[in-house]
Each structure stands twice: as C-alpha cells, then as structure tokens.
Amino acid sequence: MPYAHILLAAASIPAFCAAFDPLHHSGPASPYFDAPSQDGISYDTPSGCVVDQAAYIVRHGSRYPEPDDFTGWQQLFAKFQNNSYTAEGPLAFIPSWVPPVDDVPHEPLFLSSTGAREAFSLGVDLRKRYQFTQGGDNITVWSASQQRVLDTATYFTRGYLSQGNYLTTPSLNRGSIISLPDSVNYTFANSLTPSAGCPAYSTGDTSSVATTTFRATYQNNIAARLNKFLDGLVLDATDIGVMQDLCGFQAEIDGDTRFCDVFEDSEWLDYEYADDLNYYYGSGPGNPFSDTVGFPWLKAISDLFVLGPDKTTPDGNITPPALIMGFTHDNNLPPVISALGLWNSSATPGVYPLSLTTPSPARKFRSSYLVPFRGYVALERLACGAPPPQKVVHVAGQAPMNVSTSSYVRVRVDRAPVAIPGCTSGPGSTCTLAQFTAYVDKTRAAAAGDFVQRCGLQSISNATGEATFFTVAPLDIQEALVGLN
Ligand SMILES: *[C@@H]1O[C@H](CO)[C@@H](O)[C@H](O)[C@H]1NC(C)=O
Ligand SMILES: *[C@@H]1O[C@H](CO)[C@@H](O)[C@H](O)[C@H]1NC(C)=O
Ligand SMILES: *[C@@H]1O[C@H](CO)[C@@H](O)[C@H](O)[C@H]1NC(C)=O
Ligand SMILES: *[C@@H]1O[C@H](CO)[C@@H](O)[C@H](O)[C@H]1NC(C)=O
Ligand SMILES: *[C@@H]1O[C@H](CO)[C@@H](O)[C@H](O)[C@H]1NC(C)=O
Ligand SMILES: *[C@@H]1O[C@H](CO)[C@@H](O)[C@H](O)[C@H]1NC(C)=O
After folding, report:
1. HSE-up of residue 380 (Cα within 13 Å, Cβ side)
2. Chain segment 229-242, per-residue pLDDT in tens
3. Same domain assignment for residues 300 and 372
4. Residue 136 and residue 86 share a domain
5. How confident is the model at residue 2 (pLDDT cuts 50, 70, 90)?
6. Are 76 and 11 in the same domain?
7. For burial by CB atoms within 10 Å, which of 208, 214, 336, 344 has the most?
8. Based on the domain organization, do 346 and 444 belong to the same domain?
9. 161 with 298, same domain?
10. Candidates 186, 451, 460, 472: which one to mutate for ligand 4, based on the most atoms within 8 Å of Cβ?
C-alpha cells in the first residue's frame, strides 16, 4: 500500500517544520524573500513607537545572467544537445531543457520582470509601512547608474507613488532619481559603489581561493551522484556549478524550477556556504577594508538621524526625504554589515572568521539572508513614547495630545531586525539614538579607520573619505524624473 505509506510519512512531519526551499539557500541567485529573524526579534515596530526616518541601501532586483554566466549556460545547453545519451530520474528533463534567454541583446545584464516586480513591491510596502509621504508628494531617491540599478530605482519609485489617480495627471506625484557614477575609481567614498574607489580593497579580497577550494570539496561528489542517472554523458564540477545557479535564476526568469529539484538539501547547503565564503571574504568582514568602505554610508545616515527627518546639513543643498533610498549592487551591502560590526562575533567560539572547510550552523552571516536579489540593509529611527493608552477622551476640534518621545535605532536586513552588539536596551531590542551615534562615531569609526589613508589615496589631492551626496549635489550627478505615464 504505497499510497497509505506516503500519507503516513507526510502526517509525521511536524507542522512547524517548513519544507526545505532551495530558493532560500541560493545566495545571490535567490529571488527576494524576507530573511528569518535570526535574533528572534519581532518584525513589527514595537508598540508605542513610530518610525520617523529610515535609510535603505538596496541591491537591484532579480536579473538575467551576466554575460560570462550566460556563456556557461550556453555551454551546458550545447553539452546536453550535442551528445547522444540516456538520462533518467531527476535528469530526465535535460534533453528538452533550453536556457531561459530568448532575446540576447536585451536580456543578459538587465532586470527580469520579477526584478521589476520586486522593486515595485518594495515601493508599495515602504509607502504603507512608514506613511511618510502624503498623496501628491514627490520623492527623490539615489541610485548607482548601471541600467539594472536605475531600473530598480525607477520601479521602486513607481510603486511608491502608485496610489491615487495620478496616471492621468503625470505632472504631479513625480519621483526624482539622483544617478551617481557606478563602480568608478574617481568618486572615492562619495558613492553608492565606494569599493571601486578604494584601491586597497581588492588586495583584501581573498574570496576567490576560499570559494574555489570549498566548491572542490562537494561539486565532484554531486557530479558522481548524478552521473548514475546518465549513460553516455558525464557531468563535471563546472556543470554542477551552472546547474545549481540555474535553480534561482530560472525560477525568477521564467518560473521553471526543475533544476531546484535535482539536488539534495545538503547539496544546497554546500552551495550556499560557498557563497557565504564568497561574500564574507570578498566584500564582508573577512576583507580588512570592508568596514572602511562601508563606513561612509553609515556615518552619513547616522548624522542625518541626529538631525532628524527632512533636515539637511549646514553645507547641504539637498534636503533628503524622511525615507532615504540608495540603490546599488550586491557587493556594497556586506561592507555596511562590517561597518556596523554585525555578524562577526558570537557567543559561540569558533564561528568567525568563517571556517574555510566546515560551515558552522551558528553563523548569522549568510549570503541568502543578505544579498538575494533586491536584498537590503536598512536603518530605522524610531520615536517611542509611553505605550498607547487603553482609553482616550477626544474633545471636538482639538488635536490629540502629543506624547513626549525618545529616539532609537533599529537595523533591518531583508526585513529581519538585527540586534546591534551591546546596544539593545530600547523597545524591541533597539539601540538609543545617543548610544548608536556614539557607537558609530567612536567604536566603528576607529575600526574602519580613515578611508583616504587606509585605501592608499593620500597622494590624490581630491580624494574624499565622506559620503556627502545625500545632502550636497555632486558635480557630475544626473537627475532623472520618473513619471507614471
Ligand atoms: C552544439 O550545440 C549548439 C546548440 O544546440 C549548436 O549551436 C552547435 O552548433 C553545436 N556544436 C556542435 C559542434 O555540434
Ligand atoms: C513634483 O515635481 C514636479 C517636477 O519637478 C513638479 O512640477 C511638481 O510640482 C512636484 N509636485 C509636488 C507635489 O511637489
Ligand atoms: C583609476 O583607474 C585608472 C584606469 O585604470 C588609473 O589610471 C588611475 O590611476 C586610477 N585612479 C586611482 C585614484 O586609483
Ligand atoms: C578628482 O580629480 C580627477 C583628476 O582631475 C578627476 O577626474 C575626478 O573627477 C575628480 N574627482 C572628484 C570627486 O572631483
Ligand atoms: C571580523 O573578525 C575577524 C576575526 O576576529 C577580525 O580579524 C576582523 O577584523 C573582523 N572584521 C570586522 C569588520 O570587524
Ligand atoms: C503635536 O506635534 C505636532 C508635530 O510636531 C504639532 O504640529 C502639533 O501642534 C502638536 N499637537 C499638540 C496638541 O501639541
């Protein structure tokens, strides 16, 4: 009675044990999902608090492959097509598989429709979550200028402004995008891609060896397992790398998840860990210049949080909105984690620096929870007063009483609240604004060091270690208007 057997097996899975989802373990190839709350903090804004200012640094949305990766997909396709073989079981689909790119000049590099939707949804979500923007108001956002990043900023803005009947009045309710040069070496720290402006940064990146070495420990074993389903064709380690990438990519491009079903859970965990090493040692806390590169954004936002919403610096000629959005690439998120001092120390000894051979289940630095497509690191400034009263008296025509409030700061990574080390005394494990700014200005500034010096830019007369672009319009920005028409 195989049917009854299956029912029995299904019934024995505890209700709280969600099925393993490879798309939540595909690192930078994962379409966006909310990260689990690793610190056990509720996702909600604590009772008695409102967010009055917030800043997001966001990776672009889901996209087609980079040209190099696309070449790998085409080579795999040629291998599947140009040989005569028998495939069975989990691989029975490969003779009929075609790469999900059907318009080569317009797809590789660019956003997919899933990426556009992710960006639009973030706009809708943040408009509702914070309620900063009245009907008819505009918003300005900042973006690195590669097309897929600008397109993410554009779809975000459209989602953010999508309420009301503005489709017929496109002169109202417009967004502006301040577009910054992308991955150039002459804007230094004053950039949403500052790693490209720090010459020393690449010398601290040891991710290539770490990742290659770790992949060698599992890819051949997977190939050997899968080759038992093939007669006349032999998969190698390179093919396994491409096939695992295709799970996330094809899921977001055309919804086909057949490659996700080919691999076992433990094989996904190895694949994910290779990307954890890639980001930890490449752009995260394992690169000694990571915090240096992430600090300027953190300092700029911390200073704006001290000023409060809708204020600018003394030298400012732009007043940033209460919601300060910056759009960029995956490698510019881990430096912000490093600058904040997150995910690099643990009560459990031996977790960091990440082991090159043995994944620790206690690690919180996980690429899938940080840099999926449209992943983000966010800081929120909260105003918290007494808990809301159970009973209120309203007098006609009189404005409600204001409660006096104190300010706190919360970090969110892909929506999950993350505790700031040693600073969790506020509501919902938040950090008081005063302690947060002291932490940034003293502890984290000392760890990051001086950008110009550490990056080796002392001889460049116009090198800058500050990110001022949120308040001071740089010389070579381009501004684009986003209408809804
Ligand atoms: C291999 O397959 C590709 C894709 O089907 C095809 O374009 C190419 O001509 C084939 N090459 C050979 C040597 O058969
Ligand atoms: C939005 O920006 C447009 C273009 O600069 C301007 O014409 C319009 O008045 C602005 N709308 C609001 C509500 O500020
Ligand atoms: C920027 O890159 C160019 C071209 O590679 C190089 O000539 C120049 O020295 C670099 N500038 C800095 C500040 O590193
Ligand atoms: C710094 O000077 C170089 C060389 O004159 C120039 O190309 C670059 O745009 C300048 N950078 C900034 C941020 O002004
Ligand atoms: C991360 O931890 C390692 C090991 O303790 C340390 O060498 C490194 O400086 C830390 N990185 C940051 C950004 O704090
Ligand atoms: C409450 O605060 C708002 C914003 O600061 C202010 O406009 C309003 O007048 C205050 N209401 C009272 C009753 O003081």
Report:
1. 30
2. 999 999 999 999 99
3. yes
4. no
5. very low
6. no
7. 336
8. yes
9. yes
10. 186
Catalytic residue, candidates 60, 151, 245, 329: 60
So what's the pLDDT on residue 476?
Answer: 65
Adjacent-strand bridge partners of 58? 327, 376
Q: C-alpha angle with apex 434: 428 to 436, nearest 5 degrees?
A: 65
229 and 188, same domain (yes or no): no
Assess whether the C-beta atom of 98 lies below 6 angstroms from ligand 1: no
Confidence of residue 108 (pLDDT cuts 50, 70, 90): confident
4 phi, psi to nearest 5 deg: -60, -35
Would you say the CB of residue 404 lies under 6 angstroms from ligand 6?
Answer: no
CATH of the domain at 190: 3.40.50.1240
Using the 3D structure, point to which of 282, 317, 341 is the last residue of a domain. Answer: 282
Closest residue CA from atom 10 of ligand 6: 402
Contacts of 365 (CB under 8 A, 6+ apart): 276, 279, 280, 284, 285, 337, 343, 344, 352, 354
132 and 91 assigned to the same domain: no
> Residue 4 has what pLDDT?
37
Q: Please tell me if the CB atom of residue 291 comes closer than 6 angstroms to any atom of ligand 5.
A: yes
End of a domain among 225, 251, 282? 282
Which ligand number lies closest to the CA of residue 284?
Answer: 5
Domain count, the chain: 2
Residues lining ligand 2, Cβ inside 6 A = 136-138, 171-172, 174
- Do residues 155 and 190 both lie within one domain? yes
Query: Is the shortest distance between the CB of 280 and ligand 5 below 6 Å?
Result: no
For residues 390-419, average pLDDT: 91
**Nearest ligand (C-alpha, residue 290):** 5
- Residue 33, in any domain of the structure: yes
Q: Would you place residue 9 in the very low, low, confident or very high pLDDT band (cuts 50, 70, 90)? A: very low
Q: 185 alpha carbon to ligand 3 midpoint, in Å?
A: 6
Nearest ligand atom owner, CA of 174: 2
Q: Which of 67, 150, 158, 72 is nearest to 106 (CA)?
A: 67
**Annotation marks residue 60 as catalytic:** yes
Note the pLDDT tens digit of each residue in 191-229: 999 999 999 999 999 999 999 999 999 999 999 999 999
Q: Return d(Cα 81, Cα 79) in angstroms, integer.
A: 5
Q: Determine which one of 205, 275, 330, 414 is catalytic.
A: 330
Quick check: is 69 catalytic? no
Cβ–ligand 3 contact at 200 (below 6 Å)? no
Distance 300 CA to ligand 4 centre (A): 21
- The residue segments making up the domain with residue 247 are 66-109+204-282
Across residues 298-313, what is the average pLDDT? 97
Instruction: Give yes or no for a contact between 292 and 188, defined as CB atoms under 8 angstroms apart.
Output: no
